[in-house]
Design goal:
32% of the residues lie in helices and 15% in strands. It is of the alpha/beta class. The strands form 3 sheets. The protein has a 5-stranded parallel β-sheet with strand order 5-4-3-10-9. It has a 3-stranded parallel β-sheet with strand order 6-7-8.
Length: 281
């Protein structure tokens, strides 16, 4: 006999473990491209994120404490900083940037980006793989930005990545999840967290990523370049929660034709002898 007793759901979404780090929110948010620092700070609060990315090259670390550094406008007691190697186009530059972030006391966690070119901003596969292995060997907790290639995702995991972050679409494109099939294959085979990164344009894109089974979503432009970043940040937070709960609920199957939600037996019969609502000849 099937048990239809309602499951007792936890009050909140369980935290995400990435290496030795615990993320209370599964939505990771960037700090670039906002109209101003006040907008950024309010949007970060509305997003519910507790892990935020900071581009090491753009943080003006030598001006820290003067108000001229991005870090002067971030509550480091509230947020875990995730330094990223944005703007690096080879493994050597990415390694230098990651090490700089650690030496300056930002974090041993790093979002690794090694881009192939300035037009597509797609990751360079071999340079990314090389940098992942070196940083993991040096004790970094590496969250690595990659394409939606299932083979490369496994290679990065084997190289020591603590989390693999396939792009839903090109950075800043707002196209959402372009290749659901590849993302699903990556998710099926992974033994480390999979966080969809890049390409999110609106809240429904976040929901789709989570419904596919992603462990989290990282985004920046979708909030920062929205007409109302603060409103969009709140929408992204709720979208992630909806997608997470829906993923575990088990959606109904898709059918070509309609399937009545009410029983078809015992319908009221009209004077013509046909059930009401059933077309006549």
């Amino acid at each position: 006999m099937t048990d239809h007793t309602p499951a007792e759901l936890p009050a909140t979404i369980p935290p995400l473990q990435v290496g030795p780090f615990t993320f209370q929110s599964r939505l990771l948010v960037g700090t670039g491209k906002y109209p101003d620092n006040e907008c950024m700070k309010t949007a970060l609060v509305e997003s519910g994120a507790d892990v935020i990315t900071v581009a090491v090259r753009r943080a003006n670390l030598d001006e820290r404490g003067t108000g001229g550094s991005l870090l002067d406008h971030i509550d480091t007691k509230r947020y875990q900083l995730l330094p990223n190697t944005a703007g690096c186009f080879n493994a050597e530059d990415a390694l230098r940037t990651a090490r700089l972030g650690r030496e300056l006391g930002i974090s041993d966690m790093v979002k690794l980006e090694v881009l192939a070119d300035t037009q597509t901003l797609l990751p360079h596969p071999t340079q990314t793989l090389e940098a992942t292995k070196i940083l993991a060997d040096e004790g970094f907790t590496v969250l690595v930005y990659t394409s939606d290639d299932p083979v490369l995702a496994l290679e990065l995991e084997a190289a020591g990545a603590a989390a693999v972050m396939p792009a839903g679409a090109p950075i800043g494109s707002g196209q959402g999840i372009l290749n659901r099939n590849s993302i699903e294959i990556i998710l099926e085979r992974a033994s480390v967290p999979i966080i969809v990164d890049a390409g999110v344009g609106t809240a429904s894109d976040v929901t789709v990523a989570m419904e596919l089974g992603a462990d989290g979503v990282l985004l920046n432009t979708g909030i920062a370049h929205a007409k109302d970043p603060i409103r969009m940040a709140r929408a992204m937070r709720h979208a992630l929660e909806a997608g997470y709960w829906a993923a575990g609920a088990g959606r109904i199957g898709k059918k070509r034709y309609a399937n009545a939600s009410s029983p078809m037996e015992g319908l009221i019969t009209s004077a013509s002898g046909r059930p009401d609502g059933v077309p006549g000849e």
